Structure formats: C-alpha cells, structure tokens
Amino acid sequence: MGHVCIVGAGFGGLTAAKELRRRAPDLKITLVAPQPTFVFYPSLIWVPTRLRDPGDLVIPLDRFLRANRLGFHAGRVTGLKDGGRTVVTDTGEVANDGLIIASGGRFVRKLPGIEHAIVPCAEVADAVAIRDRLEAMMAGGGGRVAFGFSANPKEPGAVRGGPMFEYLFGIDTYLRRKGLRESFDLTFFSPAPKPGIRMGEKAVERILGEMRRRGVATHLGHRMTGFEPGRVRTEGGDIEADMILFMPGLTGPAWLEGSGLPLSEGGMVRADARCRVEGFGRTYVVGDSGSFPGPDWTPKQAHMADLQAAAAAANLAAELAGREPAETFRVELICIVDTLDRGTMVYRDPKRTLMVPMSVFGHWSKRIFEGHYLRAFR
Ligand SMILES: Cc1cc2nc3c(=O)[nH]c(=O)nc-3n(C[C@H](O)[C@H](O)[C@H](O)COP(=O)(O)OP(=O)(O)OC[C@H]3O[C@@H](n4cnc5c(N)ncnc54)[C@H](O)[C@@H]3O)c2cc1C
C-alpha cells in the first residue's frame, strides 16, 4: 500500500499519523523527529507560576507509536531529494511514497540585542528560565517585567500573541496571591496599536481593559528597534525592565530554505486549500510550517494544525488509493486567554466571532483541552 513519511512529532504530525492509520490500516508510516517526545506547548504558560512542572508537558511517545503501529526515525530533517520522495536527515535518508511536513515554525530573531530577552516559546527551558528569574526577583524584593510580541511583517498572520497575554495575566495573579504585586511594575508592549486584533476588536478591548484593571502599563504602536540589557528600545521611547519576555513573529523552520519547496514571503511552505504543496506530488504541509489560503485572521494554532492534518491525511490516503484528493479544512480560531484562575474564550469562523466573558469556566476549559490532548498522545 506504500510508505508515508511524516516530518514532526507535534500537534500536526501526531494528528496526521493517527488519521492516516485510521484510514489506511496497512500503510507503512514513519514519523521523523529529533526525539520521540511530544511537547504540549499551551500549558508552558503555567510553568513560571508552578501550576505545571516541565515534566508534566513532555510526553514520551512510545505508547502512541505502538498503538498506531508507527515507525520512528530519530533525526533532524535537512532537506529533500527526488521531488520529495526522499527525506534527508542528519541520521540518514527516508524514502517514501507520500510526505506530510509538520515541522512547526521558528521565531524570527532579527532584532538587535534579542539575546537580552527571553523568547518564551521555543523550548521548555525558556519557561523554566522565566520561573527562576521571577522567583529570584520575588526573593530580591520585586522588579520590572516587560511582556511583548510582534508579527512577521512578511506574513502578518504568523504571530503568536495569546501566550504573552497569558504569561502577563498569570504572573500578575500569582504575584497578587503572594502579596507581592505592589513590588512589581508590569508593562505590556507591542508595535501593533491593537495587539491581538485577529481575535476581533471586542477581544482587544477586553484584554486591554483587563490590563488597565490590573494596573499593567502599556506601550503600544511604536516600532521596535532592539533590546539592551534591562531595556526594550522602540521609536516611541524605551521600556526599562529587569526581565523581558518577547515573542517575535514566526517563520518556517530553517531546513526549508535549501529544500527547493515553494516558500511564501514569510518563509513558510506554500500550500493550497487541500494542504498540497504546490508543484510537489503527494507532498502535504500542515500546521505552523505552512502558508495557506484563507482569511487574514487564520491562526497558527494547535487546533488549526489538527484540522489541516486531518485534511492532509484524508487527501494523501485518497491519492495512494488512486482517488482524487478532495478534502479541505475548516478555518477556525479558538483562543482561551488564561489568567491562572479565570479565562476568556474567543471563537471565530468566517461567519461569526463569539466571546465568552472572563470566568472560571475559561480557565477550566483550558485544563480540559490539555487533558484531552495528553490522554490522546500519552
Ligand atoms: C507557549 C505556547 C502556548 C500556546 N498556546 C496555544 C493554545 O492555547 N492553543 C492553541 O491552539 N495553540 C497554542 N499554541 C500554538 C501551538 O502550540 C502551535 O500552533 C502548534 O504546536 C503547531 O503545531 P505543529 O505540528 O505545526 O508544530 P509543533 O507542535 O511545533 O511541532 C513541530 C515538530 O517538528 C519537529 N521538528 C522541528 N524541526 C524539525 C526537523 N528539522 N526535522 C524533524 N523534525 C523537526 C519538532 O521537534 C516537533 O516535534 C501555543 C504555543 C506556545 C509556544
């Protein structure tokens, strides 16, 4: 029946593997990733406030691989040969009859002095670094923390803002619980005048209102020029900070650059509405690695990666069985902005935008979402 290679063991890769197995019981499927582990990124925001330990969020995939009868090739992909039919890795090559690329995104680290900021989404270790620094500041009597994010100007949709709001609100709640909020100055910055606008005007108003209510200073709409030790530099003035958390815009993983794959301006793999890579046969892309047609608010999120993975798996299974690939994916934004004890939820599709007010329900929805994934992949 053939051999499919899936690059990446994140949300997109694992969902694609599960869906392919469901549709094609006899297919040989090989997952390629540096390690056989899954990192549940959405709960990293709870590491600095000790609601989660890093160990809770790194899931060994042995059981998942066995249950879905998947092969695993431990290696880092460096390129493709034979129009995608050979995947080249730093530990050997994987020949295939079909390919799904799900190797995630990468943060653009171009601003001068970016090493003076913690980019809190690339590694579990970054969330631990925030926790350790925060605890040192708490023990030392307080300090100033600046939180910000920006987009990739060449791919405006390649932005990850939600977790920065969550780090900010979570740390604010935590400091209040510890009776230390008065000893800290918290500032939120963004070059966008309306940060998080993909969630809609109302959501931005609500989030900025929550910042005002909590006494968080804002510095919005000024182009950033870089970082220095203890300082964020912008064209509208500097922000002094003892700890800077900053999430730059996203681009595609570095290996794409020499792969010959068609790339968008922002560095992601260009795909059609069926997740097919333009000009490459039986080659699909899902999740943060891809650039897809759709509304300008199309999110780069785990849920979106899942929807794309299900479509790509259905289409590749159809192609391998000699049928026309016809499946498209729904575009849907589901964002919970958690504050450690409450949360607000935004739902958006092409027809409507809905918001659930800030409540305990929002926080518990995020915990339920976590439980759902951890059970599926553990
Ligand atoms: C702190 C944080 C909070 C978030 N919160 C939410 C949330 O609440 N809700 C939500 O929906 N989304 C959230 N997201 C976004 C979500 O995690 C991503 O959109 C999602 O992980 C994208 O899935 P993916 O499969 O495309 O990539 P990833 O999950 O990043 O997986 C990429 C995989 O590819 C592997 N890989 C990378 N390079 C190579 C290579 N060269 N060769 C082989 N393998 C490679 C990686 O090891 C990994 O296994 C959050 C992200 C972060 C960082």
What's the helix and strand layout?
Layout: E1 3-7, H1 11-23, E2 28-33, E3 37-39, E4 58-60, H2 62-67, E5 71-74, E6 77-81, E7 86-89, E8 92-95, E9 98-101, E10 106-107, H3 124-139, E11 143-149, H4 162-177, E12 184-190, H5 201-213, E13 217-220, E14 224-228, E15 231-234, E16 237-240, E17 243-247, E18 250-251, E19 269-270, E20 283-285, E21 290-291, H6 302-320, E22 333-338, E23 343-348, E24 353-359, H7 360-377
Parallel strand pairs: 1-2, 1-9, 2-5, 9-20, 11-12, 11-17, 12-13, 19-21
Antiparallel strand pairs: 3-4, 6-7, 7-8, 10-18, 14-15, 15-16, 22-23, 23-24
Bound molecules: flavin-adenine dinucleotide (FAD).
Note down, in words, how this protein is organized:
This protein is an alpha/beta fold. It has two domains: about 5-105 and about 250-320, 3-Layer(bba) Sandwich (FAD/NAD(P)-binding domain), CATH 3.50.50; about 105-250, FAD/NAD(P)-binding domain. About 25% of the residues lie in helices and about 30% in strands. The chain contains seven helices and 24 strands. It has helices at about 10-25, 60-65, 125-140, 160-175, 200-215, 300-320, 360-375, and strands at about 5, 30-35, 35-40, 60, 70-75, 75-80, 85-90, 90-95, 100, 105, 145-150, 185-190, 215-220, 225-230, 230-235, 235-240, 245, 250, 270, 285, 290, 335-340, 345-350, 355-360. A five-stranded parallel β-sheet has the order 5-2-1-9-20, covered by helices on one side. A hairpin with a 2-residue loop joins β7 (about 85-90) and β8. α1 packs parallel to α6 (about 300-320). The longest helix has 19 residues, at about 300-320. The chain is globular and about 65 Å long. The two termini are about 30 Å apart. The mean pLDDT is about 95. Bound molecules: flavin-adenine dinucleotide. Flavin-adenine dinucleotide binds near residues 10, 162, 288, 303 and 305.
